[in-house]
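Hello support,

Our group uses your service weekly, and this is the first time we've seen a run hang past the timeout. The protein is Alpha/beta hydrolase. I'm not sure whether the cause is the sequence or the server load. Input pasted verbatim:
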Amino acid sequence: MKRTMTLALGFALLTGAAQAGSAPAARQEGLLDINGAQIHYVSQGAGTPLLLLHGYPLSGELFARNRDALAGAGYRVITIDHRGYGRSTAPANNPGSLETYASDALGVLDKLGVPKAVIGGMSMGGPITFEMYRRAPERFLGMILIATLANPAGIVEQHIWKGMAQKASTFGPQSLAPELLKDMLTGDTRTHRMNDAKILTAIVSQASVAGDVAGASTLATRPDSVPMLRTIRVPTLIVGGVEDTVYPPEFSLKMHQNIPGSQLVMIPGAAHAVNFERAEAFNAAVIAWGRRHGLR
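Update from on-call engineer: The timeout came from a worker crash unrelated to the input. Re-ran successfully.
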């Protein structure tokens, strides 16, 4: 019988695995000229390429707590800032779209000489990952879907993203942080680990207004990727937070049921920013899954 859910309660046993390995290889970072934009990237480690795509309205620094452990476990961890976010910039005539974000990510792999990679996307990074797979499935060694979904945005969600775009335009990118942090982090974390909220607030504040508007439009108009799920033929890990209120566990379960041979890990005590809020459990899940499939 197909396994439908793996709770992360047992990942305390795997903490050693997440911390094992030699010290990560030297970190490289810089700006790459991709499709008329300047895309900031960080590359750490020297093993199996692992490209991680951040969600809205964040940056590659969302994965700062994942790089060391995953690089130490045998991955070359590559993170990028989508155009308009973090340290990346974009021309005024192309601030961002689903197609452009996907093309940028593939372009970064090309510039770094990476023909194939495990590609993972968090939240908005999920639809971008699906778009990359539609275009170039041969570039995938595996897929990681983090706190995301394959469904198109419903009417209510569409209006939420339009509201985010309007607020960023009126009051600036930093104004989105209070709207988002209540869903990014659990109440327990916001109460007892207040520095986590400060870190995410700083990341949100780095975005440009044009980037925030383009990303909100991308989320509001994303296509229905549910029909393509059964066509995915690479090892796939789905990770969600049990307390995620943006894209609740039901969406992760639906993807798991439709992607052949996929593995689902739901992490307790985590909301939407699961890889950041419960980094040790997330890292352990990725490492165990990668070893199971011989990806490192």
